[in-house]
Amino acid sequence: MKKYLLLFSVAILSSCQDGTVVEESVLIGAETNVAETLEQNPNLKAKNIILFIGDGMGPNQVALARFSVGGANHRLSFENFPVTGIVLNHSAQNLYTDSAASATTWAAGVKTKNGYLSVDSDNKFLPTIPELLSTKGYLTGLVATSSITHATPAAFYAHINSRSKHKKIAEMLVESDIAIALGGGSEFFKMPLSNEAIHIINNGDSLDENNLIEYSRVLGLFGEDGLDRRLSPPTQLKMTETALDFLDSKTLNCPGFFLMSEGSQIDWAGHDNNVKYMLAEFADFDDSIAAAIEFAKQDKETLILVTADHATGGLVLQKPRGSSIRAQWTTTSHDLSSINIYAYGPGAEKFSGVMDNTEIFDRMLQALDYENLDSNNCVD
User: Fold this and answer.
1) Distance (Å, rounded) from C-alpha 99 to C-alpha 104?
2) 147, 188 Cβ separation under 8 angstroms
3) pTM score above 0.90
């Protein structure tokens, strides 16, 4: 794992809740990974998609993570992707978006109200990309460092007008076709599950077992709610690698897979105005992407996308003081920054330029040539 160096001196100028500023100093790192743009794969059509979401990851969160590792010339794993774009991320009725409304745009391609999950503003059902792809024989996996019923992962299987109804959302996950889901949220699931085909694991050590492939569905619950790092739950990297291995093995005779992996607590650190917390979560997020890149280099049929739902904390990076950057938080809420998208693999070229977040859904389906996919099932 990368070492995110941090000089953790905090000058509380005043409370962000009062509309003012919290300032922290971050030591500029020296572990430079010089920019080296990844070569674009020649395949014009993707078989698989891995979508990484850095919840709360605005452009300045990315910049601070980069500077803290290796300074001005360093590049994070996804900053070597050949294609980048800018994403406009307002919700249906507000310039301010939340994770539920934003995730619904990727999952279902439609803007909705804040708090709504894969239903439109009139509470009408919206088919999600996992549901559409399942008719073509695809398998889907979800990874999150929050509860697996939290807004971002939930948008890919739940259809409900309140992101807060976690127990109902948990029931929807059990009833869905999601093949593997790894995260927190055990307190929201009624045991035993109504679907006996789902294999439950609640110990991170179980991710090292080689027999997960024997099960048709896997649900990993490694915390009552979000993952508590003090209790040493599995990292995002470990969960992503496990889900990727599971889906890759399961789809040897299938059309392909869709995997969403979220660095959920980058956002929580922004709400807390805590740079140390944010950089630790970002390191795990970046390591997860690096592992996916190695898979995609070998596979050559996998499109990797990295983006965010919104930025959190109103993070401002000021002129360095000596060898440290002055990082200032200006709010404990989300801010209105546009966010970036980074793409690598077949179909990556579709994600350049400025786009609305609803277009990510459409462009993912285009990258898979969805309209021309046969209705298919996995062959044993």
Assistant:
1) 8
2) yes
3) yes
Cβ atoms of residues 104 and 260 within 8 Å: no
CB within 8 Å of 25: residues ≥ 6 apart? 7, 8, 9, 10, 11, 321, 324, 325, 326, 327
Count of beta carbons in the 10 Å neighbourhood of residue 329: 24
- Residue type at position 367: A
Instruction: Say how far apart CA 132 and CA 175 lie, in whole Å.
Output: 16
Q: Can you name the CATH fold of 45-311+334-372? A: Alkaline Phosphatase, subunit A (3.40.720)
Task: Give the residue among 184, 158, 185, 161 at the shortest CA–CA distance from 172.
Answer: 158
Residue 380 carries which DSSP code?
-
**Distant-in-sequence, close-in-space partners of 60: CB < 8 Å, separation ≥ 6:** 311, 315, 316, 317, 337
Listed in sequence order, the residues at least 6 apart from 357 whose beta carbon sits closer than 8 Å to its beta carbon are 87, 88, 89, 102, 105, 106, 111
- Which pLDDT tens digit goes with each residue over 191-204? 999 898 999 999 88
- List residues bridging with 50 in a β-sheet: 259, 304
Is the predicted pLDDT of residue 6 greater than 50, yes or no?
Answer: no
Summarised one tens digit per residue, pLDDT across range 319-358 is 887 888 999 999 999 999 999 999 999 999 999 999 999 9
Residues in the chain: 380
CA distances from 134 to 5, 64, 121, 139, 140 (A): 43, 39, 25, 6, 8
Lowest mean per-residue pLDDT among 121-125, 145-149, 215-219, 319-323: 319-323
Residue in the structure block whose two tokens are 């801010």:
335
List, for residues 264-274, the tens digit of each pLDDT value: 999 999 999 99
Q: Are 280 and 4 in contact (CB under 8 A)?
A: yes
Q: Is the dihedral of CA 88, 295, 276, 271 positive or negative?
A: positive
Q: For the residues of 301-365, what is the DSSP string, one character each? A: SEEEEEE-S-EES--EEEEEETTEEEEEE--SSEE---EEEEEESTTGGGG-EEEETHHHHHHHH
Domain locations along the chain: 45-311+334-372
* C-alpha closest to that of 95 among 111, 78, 106: 111
Confidence of residue 23 (pLDDT cuts 50, 70, 90): confident
